[in-house]
Amino acid sequence: MTQIKRDLTSNQKLRIFLSGCLGRMGKVIAGIAAESADLEIVAGSDLKSDPSSLFPVFANPLDCDIEFDVLIDFSNPAVLPSLLQLLKREKKPGIICTTGLDAAQIDMIKTASAEIPLFRSANMSLGINLLSKLARDAAALLYPDFDIEIIEAHHNQKIDAPSGTALLLADAVNDQLDGALEYVYDRSQVRRKRAGNELGMHAIRGGTIVGEHTVLFAGSDEVIELKHTAQSRAVFARGAVAAARFMADRQSGLYSMDDVLAAKFSK
User: Fold this and answer.
1) Considering 13, 27, 91, 158, which one is annotated as catalytic?
2) Does residue 88 have an active-site annotation?
3) Is 253 left (phi over 0), alpha (psi -120 to 50) or beta?
C-alpha cells in the first residue's frame, strides 16, 4: 500500500483542490472552507470561468501546477479520467462525490485505488450513512417478522425515481439479509397480497423538498420508522469536507463513509 504523507506542519491548513468549484455544490464547499480554521481551497477546475474567484480555476485539471493535499470532486463523470490522472501524478487522495458514474467508471476508481487513496459514496451526508447503518442493524433484528418499505421525497425537478439514496438504503438492507428481498416499485398493476420478501420503494415528488428518506419496519401492532431529512444541500458538502479530513493521510485503497463513521465512533 502507498502511504500518502502531507508536507505540512500541524498548524497549517488542509489544502484542497476542488473539481466543479463553480457549480452549486462547489460554491457551498468553498463557503464552508472559507469559514474553517483548518481548510483552504488552493485551486479548482471547472468548464466555466469566474474572474472573481479567490483561487486559480483550471479548465483542465491536469493543467494544475499548484500543490494540494486532497481533491474533492463534485463535477461531471466525464472529468473522472483526468482527475484520476492528476491524483496519480501528484500521489494525493481524492474524494469522488460526483453521481451518475457507470460501471466502467466505478471499475476505473477501484483500479486506481491500488495506487492512491480514493473515497467514494453514493451519498455524502453523514446522517444518511448513519441511517444506512441503523437500517442494516434493524433489518438483522426484525426481518422476517417485520415488513420493510422505503419512502423517499424530493423536489419537483428531480428526474429519476427512486432516488439513488433510496437504492443505497435498499441495497444496504438487502445485503444485510443476504439478498433475500425483492424490490417492488409499483403495485398498481398487480392484485395480490404483499409477499413476505418484498421491499417496497415509494417516490414522492413536489415543491422544493431537498430530500427525505424513511425506512419503515411494519410488524404486528407496531411500526418503527428510521428517517432522515436534509434541510439544505450543505449536508452533502459537510460530508465531503469530513471525508477530506479523514483521507488526508490514508494509505492507498478504496474508502467509504462507513470508514469515516467508524473513525468518529472510535474516538
Assistant:
1) 158
2) no
3) left
